[in-house]
Amino acid sequence: MVAQSKVLAFAKPRIAPDGAPPLMEAKNITKILGGKLILDDISLSLNKGEFKVLIGPSGSGKSTLLQCVHFLTIPDKGDVFLEGRSALGMGHKNISAFRQEIGMIFQDFNLFDHLTAKDNVSIALRKVKKWPKDKALAKAMEELDKVGLAEKADLYPAQLSGGQKQRVSIARAMAMEPKLMLLDEPTSALDPELIGEVLNVIANLAKGGMTMLMVTHQIGFARHLIHEIDFMENGRIIERGDPESLFADGSSRTAVFCSKLTELTGNQ
Amino acid sequence: MDTWEFYSQKLIPALNQGLWLSVLIIVPSAVLGVTIGVLVGAGRAAGPHWLKRLLDAYVAIFRGTPLVVQLTMWYYGLPGVSRFLGSILGPLGFPEFTWRFLVFSPYAASVVAFTLCSGAYQSEYIRGAILSIRKGQFQAAKSLGFSNSQTFWTITAPVAIRRALHGCGNEIIYLIKYSSLALIVTIQELTGKSNALASFYFRPLECYLLTALYYLALVTLATFFLRWLEKRLHVPGMDQAKAG
Hints:
The structure holds two protein chains of two kinds.
Chain A: H1 2-10, E1 24-33, E2 36-46, E3 51-55, H2 62-69, E4 77-82, E5 85-86, H3 87-100, E6 102-105, H4 117-127, H5 133-146, H6 162-175, E7 180-184, H7 192-207, E8 212-215, E9 228-233, E10 236-241, H8 243-248, H9 253-265
Parallel strand pairs in A: 3-8, 3-9, 6-7, 7-8
Antiparallel strand pairs in A: 1-2, 1-4, 4-5, 9-10
Helix pairs in contact in A: 4-5, 4-6, 5-6, 6-7
Chain B: H1 3-46, H2 49-64, H3 67-89, H4 97-100, H5 106-131, H6 135-143, H7 148-178, H8 190-201, H9 204-233
């Protein structure tokens, strides 16, 4: 099997320096939707501070995999471990406690339309973490400041540009101080000239040591920040490796896929 | 009796009394109607299957039959059921309230009838508003760790109420006018009073015209209140329900 040998050729298991277990470990995730096998026995792990990127053709199951890692969608088989604690083991009642520790950035932002930017960021602190209002708002302002939007705190989502909305949604996720961030094509709904501001924020998170798993086709922007690229096709990870080795071999599925993207868009 | 005297001594004092009774019927029916509408609407939009079926049946019955018929059933029909129950339960030694509670006063019958009818219509507006909320909003809430009830109170309800406000306000305005049906269960509210005066003094034109003005004033007041509420709840970009 060609695909299998590729996986082995590029696999470079990263072990945390102190030999600790991975921050997040997804084991044997299988998901069937509408009678179709979307995720076929996928395993994936991230160490603390690692930045991994998932790429692959549309329909390959990337978004579903993120949803399963977050337990927004419950996998049909398999389990996710966060710092060794099993999501399945938390039970139905406590699953929201598991989700709190993971932040998710959506393709179409999903800000709460009826709340201002600062309320969008503070609402979960107040309702879920039961912080007092002033403490939550202070934290919200701090997070909005980090994404450069402190002066937009009182505006509603409809009054913000796409790039600003996505930065607010990053602030909203970061305010919960998640251990892991999942980013689902965070720039694909944006106008080309707005992509940069969002990628900058993401690059800053990576430099700050945030553990991240991102679905994207924008690989060029921070190739040096990415520790590993996983290439997905038909519900499986068929290639896995660090960017340098994947792109050094011009015949790797990843390199071919990305060169096609470059031909189409002329950037990266 | 000259015209001025008729107005100031007879018609206006009588209509004012009727107005007070009308308000006593309208306000609780509107408040309870909206409450039922929110609960039933939420149940129909997001409840378990059996609850949806049950609430759908409620709406089908109360939206599908004339309000006059419903009101008559509550007031004139239920005492028959009560007598029947009494004839069974009485000999078995049950206390009297176990069947007497079905005999409603005219006021109770009106409020119950208007509340249940209004609630059925309100639930349609609320249900539509809840179904129009984008799925991503719920996903975002879930991903931040909101429980189902936290999501309902912080996301679903505030958005649905804003989206449903126009429809719900419209229904309250209907309610103001169909409260006049209370006259068929012998309540001397605004229309009932007007009816009695018109036939006693044989001056229908003046009586009904002035009554119409009273209703117009009530509706105008309600419209102002609803406008104020709309402004208070206004959020930029949420004027139109966005689909998709």
